[in-house]
Amino acid sequence: MFRDARDYQILFLSLFLCLGLVTRDWTLRPAVIGVAIATTLLTQTLFSLWGSYQAVGNGQTGELVLPATLTGGSPSGRWQLAWDNFAFNWRSPLISALGLSLLLRVDHLPTMALAAFVAIASKFLLKVDGKHFFNPANLGIIAALSFTHDAWVSPGQWGEEIWYALIFLGAGGMVLKRVGRWDTTAAFLGSYALLEALRNLYLGWTWDVWLHRLSSGSLLLFALFMVTDPRSIPNARPARLIWALSIAGLTFVLRNYFYLSTAVFWTLFLLSPLTIALDRLWQSDRFVWKGWAARQSVIG
Amino acid sequence: MKNLRVVIIGAIAVIACFCFARPVLAFCGFYVAKADTSLYNEASQVIIARDGDRTVLTMANDYQGEVADFAMVVPVPTVLQEGQVNVGEPAIVQRLDDFSAPRLVEYFDPDPCEPVRLFDEAEMMLPSAAPQSAGRGAASDEALGVTVEAQFAVGEYEIVILSAEESDGLETWLIQTGYNIPRGASELLQPYIRQGLKFFVAKVNLDEFDRAGFQQLRPLQIAYESPRFMLPIRLGMMNAQGDQDLVAYLLTPDGQVELTNYRTVKIPSDVNLPTYVEDQFGEFYGAMFQRSYERENKEVAFLEYAWSMAGCDPCSAEPLNAEELRQAGAFWVAPNSSPWESNVFITRLHVRYSRNKFPEDLAFQQTNNQEFFQGRYVMQHPFLNGASCPAGREYRRSLPARFEQEAQTLARLTGWNINDIRRQLPAVGVRPVDESDDTWWEELWQRSSQLLNQFATAG
Q1: Distance between CA atoms of B95 and B81, rounded to whole angstroms?
Q2: Measured between beta carbons, which residues in chain A are less than 8 angstroms from residue B359?
């Protein structure tokens, strides 16, 4: 139906947001979602424009053939050209905004604006070899948790109902199949479940304790929609598997031995730089969203 | 505000929570009998005051059996020394309960024929209880793998802090020392031992208890530092049948506390109910709680109150002063500070749990959520005297629909029969449809009465 897998992602994340608003009494206000969306889109626009301006100056304009008179002209001419060459990517910032709205809770709007700004700005500023290595929404959450005193995440908010799990798995599966990153989710969930099972066995809890710990809706949402962001995770499959196993291991340790309720977010944040090393070790083609490849070379 | 009277019936709400929710209750640890009597504690109430890793846990006893038989075993994160255990004031739990209990408020409709000044109208608008925003024998012991880490007496209690290597050894130790612990306890003790938890074991020193002349057991308080913010409930499910109720009062400096491994759901609040509910508010709350619990598939914790301790609106009891807050464990409150300066946020969570829906112990987290919430139920008394002016007739005509609405709300929340509810609604004393011959446009322009007046004057 959609050409771009991100359209499915937007559809599903919006669906979860509506589902949450209707069936889960969250402390989620429409104004907060509005601020998240507006900030991410605005930040993306500004950074894209600037990137485009820089690119025009360097004569790297992708597939556009430029009139000789315009290249290297006056700043206003350069801006004009940058504007003409500017392709607005609205999908990625929207996905980040929806992700933030689903996961992050704030008392005040500026906190959400900060999280949304950091999320998008990180894509442009924290890059190695042209690839951003932090998951934007995750970095936004970490920034809000660290630098403000009115942000929190609610890991218990989705409950453990099985039909939510099925919806998440179904929707996530569709997106991942199109993107080809299901291996990461499988490796993460599989190894995390195994670690929790071993712990359960050691402690001597009944198995319903294990099942309860794994059927958390928030964990599934993370596993299907955040840990799999194809643009920021390692490119090669072996690298991705190692990466997913590391995330599962560190999450397990932070959750069970440091009692961090936000363990998954901190883990992803701490291990994201590992992507760079893993990409060096295993060379592979970088992921590009279908139909977007041509533009990517310009705006990064 | 003379025609706006707010009546708080907090005491009834307390009854609602602890009398109408009458399933057998047990505590977060388990009570063990020294004789073979079946012991169940009636209500579990805990206060947890927490700032950073520092925690003060107050466990209230509503133990009904023979004091001689009382004993409890609670897993705790660290070894506790004598100074870390205290006997609290029994009244403090009651104070917190009264202060945070779901409340019934009442308002009175004004005389519809009296002109109402605008600012009065503003005052009469029902204040929303919806979210507002505002400004946490040694040789044998060794053989059993049980270590007595500390042993001391506090008030009427004798306390032993144990660490153990194996659950069988701990079970044997407890039995040998005279605690008749429930069957199968060893299986449940093992996960706690392996998580490195210690065991807080308390029983009553009868001489001390009799000498002090206490009528009931006083709450036990323990203070410790641990990153673990949890409450063990699994042990407590061993010697109880069916659902159990736990009310936790969580005091933090930052904001609301919520569960991280179960959903935290707000209890239905801020609804208008028929006025006759006043006499049976306890039954109403009990029925509504049970129905909400079933509707949420019996697997959530309910938020009943979340507010800064610096205020309340409406107040169901006097706000706690600094001394009382410190008694409740809020160690960061400076002595003698004004209640308005106290940096304490209270969260009241009501958890009704059973073995099959709550397999895991409760894990909490502090959030910075400053949203206020209270379980608040509104009675709006109609104005039923006279009111013969057009506005009065219009008002009276509107009443049956309003009553019906309130009746349906009550039926929806409690599952009570709608017809039984309707029978108890007040009589308006008007025929809703053909009470007046005036059509609405005549009411609007009042031309017929003007004409009559004109005729009268002309005649």
Answers
A1: 28
A2: 205-206, 208-209, 211-212
**Whole-number Å distance between alpha carbons of A243 and A265:** 15
Partners of B374 in the β-ladder: B305
Q: Where are the beta strands (DSSP E) in B226-344?
A: 230-231, 244-252, 257-259, 263-266, 271-273, 300-308
The answer to whether residues B139 and B231 belong to one domain is yes
Contacts of B194 in chain A (CB under 8 A): 202-204
B431/A contact by beta carbon, under 8 A:
no
Q: Which of the listed residues B377, B399, B434 is the one where a domain comes to its end? A: B377
Distance in Å, alpha carbon of A119 to nearest chain B alpha carbon: 21
User: For residue B227, which residues of chain A lie inside 8 Å, CB to CB?
Assistant: 258-259
Q: Report the residue count for chain A.
A: 300
How far, in Å, CA of B251 to CA of B270, rounded?
24
The C-alpha atoms of residue B425 and residue A241 are separated, in whole angstroms, by 67
DSSP 3-state assignment of B240?
A: coil
Reported as a single tens digit per residue, the pLDDT across B337-348 is 887 777 899 999
Q: Would you say how long chain B is, in residues? A: 459
What pLDDT, on the 0 to 100 scale, is given for residue B241?
Answer: 64
Mean pLDDT of B413-422: 90
* B262 chain-A contacts, CB cut-off 8 A: 156, 159-160
- Condensed to tens digits (0 to 9), the pLDDT of residues A167-217 reads 777 777 767 677 667 788 889 999 999 999 999 999 989 899 998 888 888
- B201 with B166, same domain: the answer is yes
Kindly give, in sequence order, each residue whose CB lies less than 8 Å from that of residue A11, ignoring residues fewer than 6 positions away: A2
In A, residues 219-258, which contact B (CB 8 Å cutoff)? 258
Q: How many CA atoms lie within 13 A of A93 on its CB side?
A: 27
Percentage of residues in chain A having pLDDT higher than 90: 32
What does the alpha-carbon distance between residue A101 and residue A224 come to, in Å, rounded to a whole number?
16
Domain count across chain B: 2
Of B131, B255, B261, the CB nearest to A156: B261
Last residue of a domain, one of B352, B377, B402: B377
Cβ–Cβ below 8 Å for A261 and B297: no
Tens-digit pLDDT profile for residues B71-97: 788 899 999 998 999 998 888 988 898
Higher model confidence: residue A62 or residue A279?
Answer: A279
B257-259 and B362-366 strand pairing: antiparallel
Chain A hits for B191, CB-CB cut-off 8 Å, are: 203-205
Give the DSSP per-residue string, A101-153: HHHEEESSHHHHHHHHHHHHHHHHHSEETTEE-S-HHHHHHHHHHHH-SSEEE
Question: Do both B250 and B398 map to the same domain?
Answer: no
Q: For residues B24-45, give the mean pLDDT.
A: 43
The answer to whether the Cβ–Cβ distance between B259 and A156 falls below 8 Å is yes
Task: Assess if residue B111 is contained within a domain.
Answer: no
